[in-house]
Amino acid sequence: MKKAINQSTLTLILSGVSVLALLLMLFSMISYSNVTQQLNEANEERYELTYNANRFMNGSSYLTEEVRAFAATCDQEHYDNYLNEVNVLKNRDQGVAAMQEIGITTAEQGMIDQMAALSNQLVPLEEEAMKEAQEGQREAALTYVYGEDYGKAIAQIKDLKEQFLSALDSRSLAKVEQLQKETNSIQLRMFFAMALVAGSAAAGGGHHQEEHYQPGAGGKIPGGRDIQGKSFLPLWSGGQYLGDRYAGKLHP
User: Fold this and answer.
1) Gap between the Cα atoms of 82 and 65, Å rounded
2) Any bridge partners for residue 119, and if so which?
3) Beta strand pairing status for 231-237 and 240-246?
4) Cβ atoms of 109 and 97 closer than 8 Å
């Protein structure tokens, strides 16, 4: 009877471990789904931030290229391209608005403000250059957009662009890497839970108590009827009497 009790206790423990492992696996699967979604969103945000940062910066560079080209050639096409970017396309404004909608830090916004302020300082020089070019004064036009003040502002904007892109990339990459670590950790928990379930099942099967009938003299299985006339067979295991079996039911 003691072995039977130990077997019941072991089965109960293994069943409890299996239930806990299944709950852990269920929780891990839900967590994995949520973190995977966050990871996909973080990758998308990183792409959008980089795209719109370049959109903002390329818009600024495009204006510089077109105003310099117009000053050097007096070609009306470059003048029209400049005005189209300022008044219609507005890539700088749209790029900044998109980044703000996604979410940028105070430091990142500060760098954008600095670049915008420097860009605004170039506007009077660019307007004077285009005015001179329209009058056919190329040399005068070029002095405005290739002079020391213009070149210094362009260099400062370029430095700020590099700092901004680096800060943006580092922050968005850190978020992606952190979420990737979380997904890896959840996967390990899922594998651990699966191992617990498999281990519990194997342990339960290995400790299954075999029941058999104990033969009597001459290899026959003794049996009989009780006082109520019901047939029974005595059940033994490992030389120990477990009880009598009545019509498939064990009675100790």
Assistant:
1) 9
2) none
3) antiparallel
4) no
Select from 51, 162, 54 the least CA-distant residue to 114. 162
∠ CA(142), CA(147), CA(151), 5° rounding? 115
Give 103's Cβ-side CA count (13 Å radius): 8
In this model, does residue 190 exceed pLDDT 70? yes
Tens-digit pLDDT profile for residues 225-251: 444 555 545 554 555 544 545 444 444
Q: Record the tokens describing residue 152, joined without a space.
A: 């210094």
Structure tokens at 47: 């792409």
- Tell me which DSSP letter residue 209 carries: P
- ∠ CA 60-146-70, nearest 5°, is 65
Tokens of 5: 């009790």
Tokens for 69? 């080209």
> Which residues lie closer than 8 Å to 189 by C-beta, 6 or more apart?
24, 28
- Amino acid code (one letter) for 155: A
Tens-digit pLDDT profile for residues 77-94: 999 999 999 999 999 999
